[in-house]
Amino acid sequence: MGPSVKIIINHPPTAKKRHRMFVKGNAVHSYDPQTFEKELFKASLRNEILMLKYDENNKIDEKDFNLPYNGPLYVTLTFFMPIPETLSLSKKTALLWIPNHSSKPDLDNLAKFILDVGNDILWKDDRMITSLGLVKKYSFNPKIEIEVITMDKRLSEEDKKILGLFSPRKVESILELLKGINPKKYIENIEGVILVLKELANHNKEFSAIKKLLEKNHGN
User: Fold this and answer.
1) 203: how many CB neighbours lie within 10 A of its CB?
2) Cα 194 versus chain centre, distance
C-alpha cells in the first residue's frame, strides 16, 4: 500500500439523484438537479483538505497531498446517518452499535454522490478506484468519512520479475502452509509477499527460480 488520506465531512450524507428531463420546443433536454449542492460539497471537501494539510498535529506527509491521486486506489466510504427523532433515547443508543441503517437512501446512491464530487479533487477520475468499501450506520453526529489509499506500484524490476513467477492463487496456497498467516489478507500486501518469497528461496528448492534470479541480479 502507498500513501493514504482520511477526510471527514461534517455534513449529513447525500444521495445522488437522477438527471431531470424537460421538453423545450421539439427537443428533450436534461439537467442535474444537484449542481449547486455538489458545488457546495466540493467547496467543503477542498476546505477540509486544506485544514488537514496545515494541521500541525496530523501525521500525514506532505507528499500525501499530491491530490488528486492519479493511479489505482482503495477507497472506503462510511456514512453516518441521522437517527430518527421519534425514537426513545435507549432505542437511539442501541442503533449506534452495529451498521444497521437499512432505510432510504440506498447505499449505492450515497456512494455515487461522493464518487462524482471527488473527481479532480481526491482522485483524477473515479474509474481509478479498484476497491470500494461502503458502510452505512446511525450516528448522533451525521457525517461522511472518506479514506483514500493509494496502491503503491513503485516496485523494482527485480520485484516485478519475482511476482511474475507465481500467480496470486499459487502464493495463497503457499501461505496456507505457513502457520499464523491469513493468506487472503496477506496477499494484499505485495511488499510482504515479495519478502516471504525471497526468504523461502533460501530454504526451499521449489523456489530455486527466485534464488537464481536474485543471484543473477546481485552478481553472486
Assistant:
1) 9
2) 23
Q: d(Cα 95, Cα 91) in Å, to the nearest integer? A: 6
Name the 3-class secondary structure at 151.
Answer: coil
User: 3-class DSSP state for residue 11?
Assistant: coil
Q: Which residues pair with 75 in a beta bridge?
A: 132, 148
Give the whole-angstrom CA distance, residue 164 versus residue 177: 21
Task: Please give the model's pTM, rounded to 2 decimal places.
Answer: 0.71
Of 196, 202, 205, 200, nearest to 215 by C-alpha is 202
Outline where the chain has alpha helix (H): 35-53, 89-94, 107-117, 157-163, 168-175, 183-186, 190-201, 208-218
| CATH classification (class only), 4-150 | alpha beta
Nearest Cα to 71, choosing from 129, 30, 135, 121? 129
What's the rounded Cα separation, in Å, for the pair 45 and 124? 15
Domain regions of the chain by residue span = 4-150, 157-218
From CA 216, how far away is CA 31, in angstroms rounded? Answer: 61
pLDDT tens, residue order, the chain (220 aa): 567 788 999 989 999 988 888 787 788 878 888 889 999 999 999 998 888 777 666 655 555 567 888 888 999 999 999 998 998 999 888 888 877 888 899 999 999 999 999 999 999 999 999 889 999 999 999 999 999 988 765 667 777 777 777 777 777 776 666 655 555 555 556 677 777 777 666 655 556 655 565 555 555 4
